[in-house]
Amino acid sequence: MFKISLKDVMCEHPIKVKESVAVSDVAHLLFRYQVNGILVVSDKNENKLVGIFTTADLLRLMDKC
Prior knowledge:
The chain is of the alpha+beta class. The chain is 31% helix and 22% strand. The protein has a 3-stranded mixed sheet with strand order 1-2-3. Helix 1 links the parallel strand 1 and strand 2. The radius of gyration is 14 Å and the shape is globular. The termini are far apart.
């Protein structure tokens, strides 16, 4: 399909938040920076990736409210 490698299109400085950050704060970042996912790192070690919070995750949470 595309012959472009990911390294050519990836963001050099992805947004990351600690796992204790409020969902509302992460939602603000998703919309502010117009991204579909934010890296979630450990509270104790910000070099340890523990997950990715996506727009789909936010929509799922909003649907439950």
